[in-house]
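Fill in residues.
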């Protein structure tokens, strides 16, 4: 494939045009920007070229560019065209941007950052949950931990209960924004092998020991202990699942 072919989308790829053209064009351009086909500081192809490449109208292209602006990926400059912005301006909580960044990141740095973000937010929510949890919440956590002990040979069902355990704690904290951020991040990676890693029985057993420590600290209404147990659990679980030698950025 030539450089020109790589830079401009193939018309044949759009022979079966999706129903929502602006959304589809946006998704393709997000992927190309994240991959570096259109590097930061360079202009996107001009409007007529994009119209021809995707076989869409100027209205569709303009709508796609508007969406890219909202995601922080481009800036429209009078007289200079639509310029790709540096990654520091991209909305990394956006579904398309995060998915493309994860897919492109061979170093797992994006997943490391995702886990660190989860760890900060969930440790704080565990702290608050230990102060606020009523008996019903404590009973739900105990039931989930006990059930996960029985599910260590069924990793699919185990991980469903795992996510439910964390969500009970997040709900108990009352922090809807932090819960929303964690759930949005996890929704992008929960079914990906690069994030889930190995799934054998021993790892489920080790993981649930961490859950039980968290539950015990919440049941004891020990905020600092619950926060530390959550911090340790998320860190250790990811280091076990993670492939590759660079783990220094997680241990901090």
């Amino acid at each position: 494939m030539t450089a020109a072919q790589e830079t401009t989308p193939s018309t044949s790829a759009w022979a079966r045009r999706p129903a929502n053209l602006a959304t589809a064009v946006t998704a393709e351009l997000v992927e190309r920007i994240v991959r570096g086909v259109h590097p930061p500081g360079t202009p996107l192809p001009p409007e007529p070229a994009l119209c021809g490449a995707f076989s869409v109208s100027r209205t569709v292209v303009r709508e796609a560019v508007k969406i890219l602006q909202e995601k922080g990926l481009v800036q429209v400059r009078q007289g200079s065209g639509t310029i790709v912005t540096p990654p520091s301006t991209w909305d990394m909580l956006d579904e398309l941007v995060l998915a493309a960044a994860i897919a492109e990141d061979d170093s797992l740095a994006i997943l490391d950052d995702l886990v660190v973000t989860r760890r900060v937010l969930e440790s704080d929510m565990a702290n608050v949950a230990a102060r606020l949890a009523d008996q019903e919440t404590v009973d739900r956590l105990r039931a989930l931990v006990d059930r996960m002990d029985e599910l260590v040979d069924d990793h699919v069902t185990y991980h469903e209960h795992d996510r439910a355990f964390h969500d009970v704690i997040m709900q108990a904290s009352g922090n809807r924004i932090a819960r929303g951020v964690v759930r949005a991040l996890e929704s992008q990676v929960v079914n990906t092998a690069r994030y889930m890693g190995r799934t054998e029985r021993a790892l489920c057993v080790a993981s649930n020991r961490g859950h039980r420590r968290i539950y015990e600290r919440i049941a004891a209404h020990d905020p600092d202990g619950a926060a530390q147990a959550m911090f340790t659990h998320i860190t250790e679980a990811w280091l076990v699942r993670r492939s590759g030698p660079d783990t220094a950025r997680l241990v901090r």
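The chain is about 65% helix and 5% strand.
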